[in-house]
Design goal:
The complex is a heterodimer. By secondary structure, chain A is mainly beta. Chain A has strands at 4-7, 10-13, 19-25, 31-38, 42-51, 54-57, 64-70, 73-78, 87-94, 101-103, 107-111. In chain A, the strands form 2 sheets. In chain A, strands 2, 4, 5, 6, 9, 10 and 11 form a 7-stranded mixed β-sheet that branches. In chain A, a hairpin with a 2-residue loop joins strand 5 and strand 6 (54-57). Chain A is globular, with a radius of gyration of 13 Å. By secondary structure, chain B is mainly β. In chain B, 0% of the residues lie in helices and 46% in strands. Chain B has strands at 9-13, 18-23, 32-38, 45-50, 53-56, 61-64, 70-75, 84-91, 106-111. In chain B, strand 6 and strand 7 (70-75) form a beta hairpin. Chain B is globular and about 45 Å long. The N and C termini of chain B lie far apart (36 Å). Classes of the chains: A mainly beta, B mainly beta. The A-B interface holds A 31, 33, 35, 42-45, 48, 50, 56, 58-59, 88, 90, 92, 94, 96-106 and B 1, 31-34, 41-46, 49, 51, 85, 87, 89-94, 98-105.
């Protein structure tokens, strides 16, 4: 498996608090992605990065921000968590060959 | 990525061969066809990727006709553990849009 680590794996937080999820890769892949998955909605792209300091919005970016200061780390921040952001978050990386990508184990976030 | 269309769901029985077809009429010259498998509570797992004709690995085969407007993922002799959602993606991150979005996929249910 590709060297992708998400942290934390589980988190419970209160409404209104900031939360940062981390995705760390050891593959030197150029592209990195953050998705959320909710029952009945499938995978939805939040933000993605096509290089260090190069990021763009996905289909559900409201309420989220990202940063990529080095190749191996892609951070997803919920500035002020809401209950609607309770979800499972997946990170993925891709080297650029077609659409071949590798996913992390996921982070289960609960906002109470 | 190119727009793709695949069946929402399929049923099969253990030991049968399963073929899942994906339509992608507006595939671009540089695009690859990639398939993923996702089990509940896990991130998608890359299965196979191809550009033209046939690709085979230890898990599946991918058949791509000459016009490349469709493709078929073939799973030989499925077992209960092949019950999962299968996604078809068409694109090339290096030359086209880096925005990698997943559709609803095909939910395969394998019955005893």
């Amino acid at each position: 498996d590709a060297g992708i680590t998400q942290s934390p794996r589980h988190k419970v937080t209160e409404t209104g608090t900031p939360v940062t999820l981390r995705c760390h890769q050891t593959e030197n892949h150029r592209y990195m992605y953050w998705y959320r998955q909710d029952p009945g909605h499938g995978l939805r792209l939040i933000h993605y990065s096509y290089g260090v300091k190069d990021t763009d919005k996905g289909e559900v970016s409201d309420g989220y921000s990202v940063s990529r200061s080095k190749t191996e780390d892609f951070l997803l921040t919920l500035e002020s968590a809401t209950s609607s952001q309770t979800s499972v978050y997946f990170c993925a990386t891709a080297g650029g060959h077609g659409t071949e990508a590798f996913f992390g184990q996921g982070t289960r976030l609960t906002v109470v | 990525l190119a727009k793709t269309t695949q069946p929402i769901s399929m049923d099969s029985y253990e030991g049968q061969e399963v073929n899942i077809t994906c339509s992608h009429n507006n595939i671009a010259t540089n695009d690859y066809i990639t398939w993923y498998q996702q089990f509940p509570s896990q991130g998608p797992r890359f299965i196979i990727q191809g550009y033209k004709t046939k690709v085979t690995n230890e898990v599946a085969s991918l058949f791509i006709p000459a016009d490349r407007k469709s493709s078929t993922l073939s799973l030989p002799r499925v077992s209960l553990s092949d019950t999962a959602v299968y996604y078809c993606l068409v694109g090339d991150l290096k030359t086209n849009n880096n925005d990698m979005r997943f559709g609803a996929g095909t939910r395969l249910t394998v019955k005893p």
